[in-house]
Design a protein that fits this description.
The structure is a single chain. By secondary structure, this protein is mostly helical. It is about 75% helix and about 0% strand.
């Protein structure tokens, strides 16, 4: 019975398949939540009223809770993603995967201040890391997966271009 629920959870949290309404709905909810989360981060960077600031804090708590549940469910179903491995190895393999690292970086800035006391400069850097939520789209948008293969195939050209651009930017700045 537990395995049946685990399989269904896996089907829902993985990219939606045609005809699976729950999975498609889940994908849309997460994508909308990502967009709203990024919009709230941008709004928060402006001078806003206390009531709006309070609303955005509540929204952040709700969205982080949902992202945390999603991340936990992905760990719970890691064995189905990597069936050739044992459960602990599957979990480690999932946690070290690029998308899982992005997911973790998207929620971590919320939790770190609760775990350790940090100075305000470090906290600002952590808050900037919330922008990693935008990278979560890579899991849900097919064209971003195509972009990944293009980047892999043109890696050398992109490195040279970034190097030359950095040099030009450095020269222009000086």
């Amino acid at each position: 019975m537990k395995k049946k629920y685990q399989i269904r959870i896996f089907e829902i949290i993985e990219q939606g398949k045609k005809g699976d309404t729950s999975s498609i709905l889940f994908d849309w909810i997460i994508m909308i939540l990502i967009v709203l989360s990024i919009v709230s981060i941008v709004i928060e960077s402006y001078e806003i009223s206390d009531s709006l600031h309070y609303f955005l804090k509540i929204f952040e708590i709700i969205s982080i809770s949902i992202f945390t549940i999603e991340y936990s469910l992905r760990i719970y179903t890691a064995k189905l993603l990597f069936p050739e491995n044992t459960m602990p190895k599957s979990i480690v393999k999932f946690i070290l995967s690029p998308m899982a690292i992005i997911d973790l970086l998207a929620i971590l800035p919320f939790y770190i201040p609760f775990l350790i006391t940090v100075d305000l400069r470090f906290l600002r850097i952590l808050r900037l890391l919330r922008i990693f939520r935008l990278l979560k789209f890579g899991r849900y948008v097919e064209s971003l997966k195509g972009l990944k293969s293009i980047i892999k195939s043109k890696k050398e050209e992109l490195i040279i271009t970034m190097f030359l651009t950095s040099m030009l930017l450095f020269m222009a700045a000086t």
